Amino acid sequence: DPAALSWAAWAASLPAIRAATKASLVASHALSAQPWSYVLTGVALHAASALVLLALARRWLRDFGLDARRASSAALIATLIFALHPAQTEAVTYVSGRSVSLAGFLSLVSLLAWERRREGGGHRTLAASLAAFALAIAARETAVVLPFALVLLEAARGERWGEALRRARAHFAVLGAALAAIALSPTYARLLRESLATRSPLDNLRAQVDGIAYLVTHPLLTLRVNFDPDVAATWPPDAGWWLAALGLVFAIVLGFATLRRLRPKSRPSPRAGAASDPPGAHGG
What we know:
Blueprint: H1 7-13, H2 19-31, H3 35-63, H4 68-84, H5 89-93, H6 98-118, H7 123-139, H8 146-156, H9 161-167, H10 169-183, H11 186-198, H12 201-220, H13 239-261
Helix pairs in contact: 2-3, 2-6, 2-7, 3-4, 3-6, 6-7, 7-10, 8-9, 12-13
């Protein structure tokens, strides 16, 4: 793609899909046209993501009751699992996986800025969070889930759902603008038609659940990974699929319910837009 080889060609291609990803490829190419520069950038992005995740995990674990020492230890374990999971290999070492690693890094940066905003960071931290979120969407479209993750995070802390939605309203505004731009793009319209022609939504649902179940049971539990696993993608699914789907739903509900039962050590500051109710007033 010429737009991924020089800054002039990249600028001339705008507006374009995944512009942030192409910009990162231009940066790698400017360093060297040899494969090592692309691999080096991918590894650097992954290492940076791990460091941001470590900072987030420490904050969250302290918020939910762990002392500083235990929070640091648990956060380090979680970060090492993230950093060394064999399922990360393709996103880190393959040029085609750059969109995944870049969008993941930018989404984590947006989350970290969000956390600092809650601690009284001011409008600059909110602007940083919104900018990182917008760039994450420009790297890979799956980053659109971030505002919903923010709502779940606030709800897990004990906020009412309405208040959690209100706090994330700026991110939903960025999401709305991004979805409007996608809807007006002829390229995205063509890609959507090709996607639906390739696989129906129900077939895709089956493939996604089977894929997640594979990642949990093979690379994570047995450290066995297949570059191209044989994942079924036709509807209706078999009994094993329903068992895996119920297991995933149960794990999500159990994890969220566990967080809701924990009582955070500190409430959001009024400057961050929190209600002035006493601790525990939201039932968190």
